[in-house]
Amino acid sequence: MNITTTGLLSGLILSLSLIPSLHAAEQADTVIVTATRTAQTVDETLASVSVITREDIEASQAQDVIELLRLQAGVDVARYGGPGTGASVFLRGTGSDQVLVLIDGVRAASATTGAFAWSTLSLSDVERIEIVRGPDASVYGSDAIGGVIQIFTRRNDRAYVRGRVGSYASKLFEAGLGGGKAVRYSLNVSSRAADGFSATNDKNTFSYNPDNDGYRQRSASGDLRFDLGKKAKLKIGGWYSDGYTEFDDGATEPVFSNSTNSALNLRLDHHTTSAWSQNFRLGWAADDIDTVSSFPSFIRTRRWTADWQHDLTLGETALLTMGLSAIRDTAKNIDTATDSTVFDESVDTNAAYALLQTTLGRHDLQFSGRVDDYSSFGSHTSGQIAWGTNAGNNRFTASAGTAFRAPTLNELYHPGFFGFYAGNPNLKPETSLNLELGLRHRFDAHRRLTVSVYRNTIDDLIAYQGTNNQAINISEARIDGFELTYTLQQARWSAQASLTLQKAIDTDTGKDLKRRPREKFALQLQRQTATGGNYGLEWLFAGKRHDAGTVLAPYHLINLSARTPLEKNLWLEGRIENLLDTDYELIYGYNTAGLSAYVGVKYDFVSQ
What we know:
Elements: H1 3-16, E1 31-32, E2 40-41, E3 48-52, H2 54-60, H3 65-69, E4 75-79, E5 87-91, E6 99-103, E7 106-107, E8 126-133, H4 137-140, E9 147-153, E10 159-166, E11 170-179, E12 183-197, E13 213-228, E14 232-247, E15 255-273, E16 276-292, E17 297-314, E18 318-335, E19 340-360, E20 363-374, E21 378-391, E22 394-405, H5 409-413, E23 430-444, E24 447-464, E25 471-490, E26 493-506, E27 511-512, E28 519-528, E29 534-542, E30 545-547, E31 550-552, E32 555-567, E33 570-577, E34 596-605
Parallel strand pairs: 6-9
Antiparallel strand pairs: 1-2, 3-8, 4-5, 6-7, 8-9, 10-11, 10-34, 11-12, 12-13, 13-14, 14-15, 15-16, 16-17, 17-18, 18-19, 19-20, 20-21, 21-22, 22-23, 23-24, 24-25, 25-26, 26-27, 26-28, 28-29, 29-32, 30-31, 32-33, 33-34
């Protein structure tokens, strides 16, 4: 992005800030729990956060989670083709395995790759998404170098059905129900499929195959919630996804993967006294991937977690949170061509953490620390300190925190391919130090501007650069960033504009980390109608990115969406993506969707 373009985008944000506001809900009062493991409003938190609600999802009519995340400040994405294919989410320039992903509090990333399979998650199963930018290892442990993305599964208070068809022979059906009093329940099911388009183009000399690569996916999520007397609550929830995805690896015959992903959680909350509450959580996550290709394999991973958290109120201005955590990761990799076990390993982790939130006069302070003990490499300590204060309509924040990423089971134990790209059981964790300054300004009750400036230095990056390209700790990276977000709600209009400027470089080579643009701008504009529907526009600009020894060109995307009632409880929905039919790449040699359109109907069953 040149200076002129940057100035135009910044000017657009500033011009939006001059529009007078009228009546609207207050986003700053939205309650989140991810940043500190305890409930607080967006304005109270000392971290940089954003929330995607179920209302946002319904208004956007987005096809998947990736399309929503890419519009958020500090979030960049890359995908190996169309929906259903593998995708990476970069948070503040960090790698996809340096972002902690939680589903209802349960770690959801693969124990072998370290990254979450975003293509397995249907928006039909999502109630809300909380994004915390910046390190949070002092309360969550490994992976939270760039931040935390937590998905809360959907909770229905009524029954509904939805159907949608569109470009690339795509089809979607979903249904849900919910309700109850003494026992509250919610259930969602969905099925989606598409013939797709070729994942690769002729720039990809190794994998190119011009056939269409389709996908099919079925998913389900649900929970049961019980009140156990006046002081205790019990929740049992789960999520399941079963997918089939075609991809290219240079073979003329179809190559594909069958995958299943699931997560279960049990949570017991107990208010022991007026000043002491505790919760106990058990979690289980699993993913199985059966790949039929030139290198066929079956990979099975399992994760068991247990957390015991205590929240102690200390007087009127302090809250102390303490907890214990245990995690066991196991993985088995089978070469299905020879029916031989590549590796079968496990890692155990035990941890203790504490977080103090207190107010001293006009100053809000947070101190947190955590110790993780790994069976693979020993113990590691993380810590963070954060400060905030209000001055008129301004809130100033500052923080400093360390984080780490433990080596994955692949990086530790995979024997490699013919002696190359093998794991290394002597790996150390990747470590980071993040410094951040923030400003939040309220023009009035309904217009808000947030600014964040940060530097994240990451050491001991794991790279396959040792003997025969074995995994070793060698690289260092530095990420400098600036984020500006403006939100406006005026009567039936709402807008969110964000500008992200970042420089993510490998300090050993001075080169940009691949697939991260230095500039990104996103605008989301919504107009509510008098009948309860809405019309929306999304505009995304991403600057040039480096990948595979070349430079990917900048691109603009414009998407349109609409919802309107046909009659009581019956909705007509539609979305147009890539309105300008932009030809662009997120990964060198891989295609993206052109101009496409989707239309559907939804019916809500409302009790009379």
